[in-house]
Q: What sequence folds into this?
């Protein structure tokens, strides 16, 4: 077969799981996990509403779900990702939006079991960095093709330098959250009161 | 070349809805709704109810088939299910078990 790439076209919508061995190119909409041993490309018109797992992931479009690359994960300019990113090599280009934790892990740590354990354990970590104190975590996670393979694991929340680069470059100005995910701020009762008073005034 | 291609070695479990041509060389389980041409290539396995503008079937299909225009079963096709379309052709060498409904 000449071309073994699977293409989900622009006017196509898939609700369900996509698994297999070939490369996948998503230009349309997928609502369901993608698990392939080939490369996955999510084009600028592509939307994936679930986790994506493949050899090399190239994201130009939108993904809401975790990204797991056996070799690498690349977020190109214009990518919008809400979810955790995990791969031996991770690159986030200027102009890409990311929200979630980023972890560069060695290939051996990519087995499904350990990946699951890590994702479960993640919310419990309070600080942004969990890697060895001597390593410069964030910059390493961001710089494309600059991953030092001698360090077994470097973890960084998409905060420090990554979010500075991405947040300033984002076209719509959507800020990237600094630090680990926090619960929303509590509703201030006095605000409610003030609003009620304003509404009352208007009624008169 | 169809705009959406499910390559050999790929399995989709769920529902596919498309408004463009779709070619399937892999495996699809669930439901497939298309407005244009649906091509099920030789070697493909489809276990789904299929709806489309017109259908060309060369692979294995289990499920009911409805087409707005026509359904062509090519030689080598293996279809189990009911076929409903204005025009239906079954090539010599196609295996088929089910009802044909060409009412309009």
A:
């Amino acid at each position: 077969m000449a071309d073994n790439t699977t293409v989900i076209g622009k006017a196509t919508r898939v609700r369900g799981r996509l698994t297999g061995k070939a490369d996948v190119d998503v230009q349309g909409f997928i609502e369901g996990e993608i698990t392939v041993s080939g490369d996955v490309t999510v084009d600028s018109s592509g939307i994936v509403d679930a986790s994506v797992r493949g050899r090399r992931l190239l994201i130009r479009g939108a993904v809401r779900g975790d990204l797991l690359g056996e070799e690498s994960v690349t977020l190109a300019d214009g990518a919008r990702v809400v979810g955790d990113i995990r791969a031996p090599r991770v690159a986030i280009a200027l102009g890409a939006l990311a929200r979630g934790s980023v972890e560069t892990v060695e290939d051996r740590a990519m087995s499904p079991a350990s990946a699951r354990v890590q994702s479960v354990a993640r919310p419990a970590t309070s600080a942004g960095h969990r890697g060895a104190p001597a390593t410069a975590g964030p910059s390493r996670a961001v710089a494309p093709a600059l991953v030092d393979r001698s360090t077994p694991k470097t973890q960084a929340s998409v905060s420090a330098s990554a979010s500075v680069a991405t947040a300033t470059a984002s076209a719509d100005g959507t800020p990237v959250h600094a630090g680990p995910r926090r619960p929303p701020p509590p509703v201030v009762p006095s605000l409610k009161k003030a609003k009620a008073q304003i509404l009352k005034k208007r009624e008169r | 070349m169809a705009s959406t291609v499910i390559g050999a070695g790929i399995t989709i479990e769920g529902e596919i809805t498309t408004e463009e041509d779709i070619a399937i060389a892999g495996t699809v389980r669930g439901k497939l709704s298309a407005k244009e041409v649906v091509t099920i290539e030789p070697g493909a396995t489809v276990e789904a109810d299929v709806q489309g503008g017109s259908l060309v079937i060369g692979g294995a299909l289990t499920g009911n088939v409805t087409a707005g225009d026509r359904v062509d079963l090519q030689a080598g096709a293996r279809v189990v299910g009911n076929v409903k379309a204005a025009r239906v052709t079954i090539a010599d060498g196609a295996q088929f078990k089910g009802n044909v409904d060409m009412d309009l």
Remarks:
- Confidence is low (pLDDT under 50) at residues 112-154, 159-174 of chain A.
- Chain A touches chain B at residues 1, 3-24, 28, 32, 36 (CB under 8 Å).
- The CA atoms of residues 123 and 181 of chain A lie 8 Å apart.
